[in-house]
Amino acid sequence: MAAAHADGAPLQPAEAKRLARRLARSERSTRLSALLLVAPLLLFLLMVFIGPLLMMLSRGVRDAEVAQALPATVLALRDWRHEEPVPDAAFRALADDLSKAHMPAAVAEAAARLNYALPGLRSMLMGARARMRNLPADPRAFFVGLSSRWDDKATWSAIRQASGPLTDFYLLSALDLKRSPAGSIEAVPAGESAFVPAILRTFGISFGVTALAILLGFPFAYLMATTGKRMASVMMLVLLLPFWTAVMVRVLAWSMLLGREGIVNDGLRSLGLLSQPLDLLYNRTAVLVSLVHIFIPYMVLPLYSVMKTIPASQMRAAASLGAPPAMAFRRIFLPQIVPGLAAGSLLVFIHSLGVFVVPAVLGGPREQGLPVLVVNYVTKAPNWGLAAALSMVLLVSVYLLYWLFVKLTKTVTPSVSAR
User: Fold this and answer.
1) Contacts with 411 (C-beta within 8 Å, 6 or more apart), sequence order
2) What is the pLDDT of residue 280?
C-alpha cells in the first residue's frame, strides 16, 4: 500500500523520500541508544573476561623468548636449512649473544623454552654462558668442546624453530605431535603420548556423566512434573540440596562414603554381601558418581520446566484413540521435551569438561583430565604456553561439539515430530 496523508491524499515522491529518510534516522537513533545502554556491560566483559581470556590463549601461539635473548643467532639461522651444514656465522652469533647478554633472566627464559623442544638444551645454553668470559676466537670449537651436541643439527633446528614470533609448537605438543629437525610434523613416540589420552579421558568422563544424568534425571523429572504439588516441592528440595554445600565438601563426603573403610563398604560387609572391601575410590567409578551427584540438577531442571508445560490430557487423548503407551510417548511426549533434554545434556556435558577438583581428589593418577593438566602446568611445572594450548584445544572442542549438538538437535526434533 502506498503511503498517504492523514486525509487519504497520496504522498508526492519528494515527500515519500523525506519520510523514508526520517524513518531511517529514527531507526539509527534507536539502535544507537540501545548500543549505548549495553556499552558499559560490553566494556566490562571485554576488560574482565574476553580480554584476559584472549591474552591467556595467545600464549599458546606466541614464541618471543628466544628472539629476545638471542637476536643475532635467530638472524644468522633465518636462511639456514636442516640439510645444510651449520654455518660458522651461527656459532659466532650465539657466542656474541651470550657474551653481550645483560639480562640473565631473558637467557634463562629462552633456555627453558628451548628445553621444551629438546631436553638438555637448557643446561647446554646456560653452561655455555657461564663459561664464556670473553668472545672466543673460534666459537665452533668452543661450543663443541663444551658438548658434542652443539655440532648436532637437531640443536640448531630447535633454536631456529623457536625463533618466533608465532609458533605451532605448543598446539602440536597438546595433540602429541612435534616437528622433526627437518620441519615436518610427526607423532611423538607411543611411550611419550600424554595429552591425547587425557583428551579422550576427559571427553569420555563427560559423555559418561551426561548419559548417567539422563538415565537418572529423566524419571525424576517426569515424576516431579506429574505428581502433586506437595510431593513436587519435596522432590525439588531434595534436588537442590547439593547446591547448598560447597563442591569440595561434597567431594570429601564421597571420599568418606566410597573408601575401603567407608560407609558403603561397611554396609555391604555388615549385610554379608562382601568378604573384602571394594575399590570404589580413586577410579572412574568415583569420578562418575560424584559428578552425577553434582550436576544432575542441571539435567532435571530443564526437563522439568518443559515437562510441566505438557498437558496430561494429550497422553490420555492418545490412549483413547488406541495408541499404545510407547507410541504415545514417542510421537507426542518425546518431541516436546527434546529442547529441555538438549539443554540439560549440554549443560551437564560442558560443566563436566571443566571440572578440576573431582578428578584430582577422587580419580587418582589414571583419571586426570585436561583441566588437571592445565592447572599443573600453571602451578606445579610452569609452562604457560602449553597450558594455553591445552586450554585452546578444550575450548575449540567444546565449541565444535556445541555446534554439532545444535545441528543434531535441529535435525532430530522435526524427524521425531514427524513420526
Assistant:
1) none
2) 83
CA–CA separation, 276 and 256 (whole Å): 17
Q: Rounded CA gap, 297 and 319, in Å?
A: 31
- 132 in Cβ contact with 98 (< 8 Å): yes
Q: What are phi and psi of 68, to 5 degrees?
A: -75, -40
Residues across the chain: 419
Nearest to 259 by CA among 361, 120, 366: 361
> Residue 9 region, left (φ>0) first, then alpha (ψ -120 to 50), else beta?
beta
- In order of their start, the domains of the chain are 65-192 (no CATH), 195-418 (1.10.3720.10)
In sign, the C-alpha dihedral spanning 276, 280, 282, 283 is positive
Q: Kindly report the number of other CB atoms within 10 A of residue 176's CB atom.
A: 18
Q: pLDDT for 126-182, tens place per residue? A: 998 888 877 888 999 999 999 999 999 999 999 999 998 999 999 999 999 998 888
255 CB-near residues (< 8 Å, 6+ apart): 262, 281, 286, 361, 362
Cβ-Cβ contacts under 8 Å for 392 (sequence gap 6 or more):
57, 60, 171, 174
**pTM of the predicted model as reported, rounded to 2 decimal places:** 0.80
